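Researcher: Good morning. I'm working through a list of sequences from a screen, and I'd like to move beyond sequence-only analysis. For each chain I'm collecting a predicted structure so we can compare shapes side by side. This is the next one on the list. No need for commentary yet; just the structure.
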Amino acid sequence: MAKEFSRSRRIGQQLQQELAMVLQRDMKDPRIGMVTVNDVDVSRDLSHAKIYVTFFEEDPKVIEDKLAALNAAAPFARTLVAGRMKLRVMPELRFIYDASLVEGMRMSNLVSQVIRNDEARKGHADEEGEATEGGES
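Model: Good morning. Structure tokens for this chain:
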């Protein structure tokens, strides 16, 4: 059982690399634009693959349109990738929007902002403390 998992995982990793290249070089659909392949989850029987993608786009309507364009182009992408990978069965591709990367960046920015605000407040409090304490520790 562990061997099957590692095989599907290995195929998923290879599929992720090949898809990233195909989407970058061979997809000419302007609706898709810049797309990042975050992860690929291949079913155990290798018949299906969920491709998790990010567009660095915040408008839900634009994201929906890009995802629809990607899924419409999935058979074409599958054919291109199949030519690069030596598999008996090439999984059907289904693209899924992965908000975790964008959400992670947003959270990171919020944390950085809180730290900056906290340091600014602390620096201001230290200056006031030095003025009132008269240099005592």
